[in-house]
Amino acid sequence: MSMTPVEDAITEALKPSTLEIYNDSAKHAHHKAMQGSVSRETHFRVSITSEAFKSKMQPARHRMVYALLKEELDRDGGIHALQLKTRTPDEEERQVAREKAEQGQPIAEIEQDRG
Description:
Structural class: alpha+beta
Helix content: 25-40%
Strand order of the largest sheet: 1-2-3
Number of helices: 5
Order of helices and strands: HEHEHHEH
Radius of gyration: 18 Å
Shape: elongated
């Protein structure tokens, strides 16, 4: 069992290769809409890498996640805001390579036979 219902629902349905969940609720506790809320889990940033997103556009991917979290989104004191980053393993690999190139790091290492 995980720390959040968000993690449970996403892990079970999407079998992500990467799942990062950030609880940003404390950053938004002072907002007028949050006054009187007793929940400490209202604002999340979620990054998901899953094959389940293959050949789907971002809106369809986001609808998939919203459907998984519908109960949590609809519940009083539940999720108020959800920021999603959804990608496939291929997209993640390309992004990592791009970031390495921007930082001047080798994109791939090739071992040569010194024999």
